[in-house]
Amino acid sequence: MRSSIGRTGPGALALGIGLAVMLGGTAIAEELSDPLSPLTTTKGSVLCFERDYSAAHLAQHPKQTTKSILLAFEQRFVTIVLRPRTGAEKRIYAACDWRQGAGIDTSDHKMIPNFNGPAGFDCMVTKDDSAEEAGYGLIDPAQDGQSLTLFLQSPIYVEGNSPNEESHSMALGKEDRTFVLTRTDPKACQAYKPVSEE
To answer: Is this prediction's pTM over 0.85?
Structure first.
């Protein structure tokens, strides 16, 4: 009796192709799914991401003015805190929506040249608690929700650290527009929780 082990044929080939397509489709579906919002379904829950740059890194990138950055994510609302080498921290408030084809404007032009992902969060920066758009950012989260890449357009509207400091539009250098952040303890973001709609 001959064994069928190792035999190949149209049926085996079709099975292999079908499995590859199924696995490929699963991977694509995962890339298109929002990995962050399901983690903040409880009211008041916040995801916190940060990056602190070492003295060695800053020495190697003298044109980078950002010493550290913090991002608080609560459902679709985001607060970004930029801490420069000198001077007071700056805050950016934005409303973000997960979208397939993020980073592409209505004229089909890329707004973030170095973002090539299939989906991400389009973030519209808000100004003085109004609906007026005051800049654009894009969040590209890892599928495990443990890290993200933040892209910022320049100029962008920032708010001061105190009521006495006026809000203003701020130009960002090329080395202050893309940041890779990792998830950290939510307590680090408690003072910067986004103001979400009721």
So the answer is: no
